[in-house]
Design goal:
Length: about 200
């Protein structure tokens, strides 16, 4: 009987480790200074969606895979997703979205966008660093994302942050059947956390 109880206990612990209690990801609003400009960083909410759609159209004009319903479902799923926005003078200028896969311990970056006049000014880097730090705090193993094969600027940014390429996903983008580069950031849990 004691052996059966131990076996049940081991199975229960394994199940709970793979299926942790779903909790909402929290994020406290913050003001940050980047290149002498002030930005408010906060969690995205449903009323932000019209602005998110406008920015999505500006940044990715040929991609219609993100609509109101998709954004709404992503933003409302607070147990698995975290969507952050950046505002400058009350205008939406950047956002990032991520899905936290508890089973794989991977944070999948679903979307990153910076309005054209604020590109190459450190906003995308800042949002990615926030996600990296957050994933590290929660003891996740990795972050992953896909990026268009033609988007060399974004690939260079991701590489500078420690992401590495894991190959191509053929015809990944529905809008033009372009290939995607599969990239991953892995934490080294032996040392102090982040990649060197």
């Amino acid at each position: 009987m004691n052996r059966m109880l131990k076996k049940f206990s081991a199975l229960l612990h394994a199940f709970l480790a793979e299926n942790p209690k779903q909790t909402e990801f929290s994020f406290k609003n913050r003001h940050v200074l980047i290149n002498k400009k002030s930005f408010l960083v906060s969690r995205a909410i449903v009323p932000d969606i019209p602005e998110l759609l406008k920015m999505q159209e500006k940044v990715y004009p040929n991609d219609n895979s993100w609509n109101f319903g998709v954004f709404e479902a992503e933003i409302k799923n607070k147990n698995n997703n975290l969507y952050l926005i950046m505002r400058h003078e009350d205008r939406l200028v950047a956002f990032i979205g991520a899905f936290f896969d508890r089973r794989k311990r991977d944070v999948h970056i679903t979307n990153v966008a910076v309005t054209p006049i604020f590109q190459r000014k450190g906003l995308g880097r800042y949002l990615l660093e926030v996600m990296i730090d957050y994933a590290d705090e929660l003891n996740y193993r990795s972050l992953s994302l896909e990026v268009r094969l033609s988007n060399k600027t974004a690939q260079a940014l991701y590489k500078s942050l420690g992401f590495t390429s894991y190959g191509l996903k053929k015809e990944y983008y529905v809008s033009n059947r372009e290939d995607a580069v599969d990239m991953r950031y892995e934490f080294s849990r032996k040392g102090n956390g982040k990649n060197e």
